[in-house]
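Journal club prep — side note

Before the paper discussion, L.F. wants everyone to see what a predicted structure for a comparable chain looks like in token form. Sequence:
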Amino acid sequence: MLDAALALCDRDGYQNVTIKGIADAAGVGRQTVYRWWPAKTDVLLEAVRDLAARRSVDLAPDTGDALKDVEVLLAATYGLTRGSTGQALVGLLADAQSE
């Protein structure tokens, strides 16, 4: 469900993601999504955290060279924001400002 939410966000934009769309893309019922998350913001926030956790090795390099570690960290971070998480992060930040 988390990967489906990020894929929808990347394809359709944050504002167009719905719980129904997430459920359909993941092949589950809406109630399954609502059982775990009350709103799309919760799904996408967890999806971003989950993706970061799965890529934690890239986000905490230890090459033995501090400058190289910073370069690897920045490349991985910017890579995530240009990929499927970019739309989600922008949408989540926009929602956070209005709440």
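L.F.'s comment for the group: The radius of gyration is 15 Å. Keep this in mind when we get to the figures.
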